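Lab manual, section 2.4: Encoding a predicted structure.

Procedure: take the sequence of the chain (218 residues), apply the prediction step described in section 2.3, and record the output as C-alpha cells. A sample record is shown.
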Amino acid sequence: ISTFDLKETLTFLSSNIRDIPQEKIILCIIFYFIGILGRALRIFYLSGKINISSKKLIYLQTLSTSAQLALPFRLGDGARIFIFKKYLNGIAESTFIFIIEKILDSITLFTILILMLWQNEKFINLIADSRFIILASILLTTSFILPDLIEIFYRNLLVRDGNSKIKILFLKYAKDILLAREKTSRRIKGKIINLICITYVIWAFDCLSFSFIASALK
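Recorded output:
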C-alpha cells in the first residue's frame, strides 16, 4: 500500500484512456466471463443437482467471484462458502466443495508451472524450497487427514457415556462434516479427469483475459 498511489494511477488511466484499444477490453471481459461460466459449470458438476436455474447459478458464481476479488485477506473465500450455502445444502458441504475446487485449481496451476519451468533451475529451487514443502504438507493434511481425525473423535464420543452440551454440539457438527465429505467423495468418483479438464478451460480463459488487459494497458 505504501508504494501504491491511487491518484497517480487514476491520472495515468484518464490521460491514456483514449489510447486503450476498446476491442481488447471487450475481449478481456468476454473471456473473464467465460471463466466465470466455467466455474459455475464446475460447481453444477460437483453439486450433482439436476433441477437448478442456470441464471441463479451464474448469478451466485458472479457474486462469489466479485467477493473474492473485492474483499481483502482472502475473506472472499469465506464469503463464497456462505454464498453457496443454500445451493449446496449447508456450510459443511459448501466448504468441502470449495476445498475440492482449490485442490483442482492447485493441481492445474502447478502442472502449468511445471511445464513452464521444466529444465529450468528456478523449478529446482522451487521444489527445494522448504516453504513450498511446508505449504503442500499443510494443504494435504487439512484436506485428507483432518476429516479422518474428526471421524475418529466422532466414533469415540458415540460409545462414551454422558450427554453434555459440548458433546452433543460436537456430534452434530461432526456428523454434518462427515456426511458432506461422503457426499462430495461420491460425486467426484470417476469424474476427476472431467473436472481437471474443466479447470484447465477455466484457467485458459482467465489467462487470455489477463493477457488482453495487460496488452491493452501496455
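Check your result against the sample. The chain has a mean pLDDT of 83.
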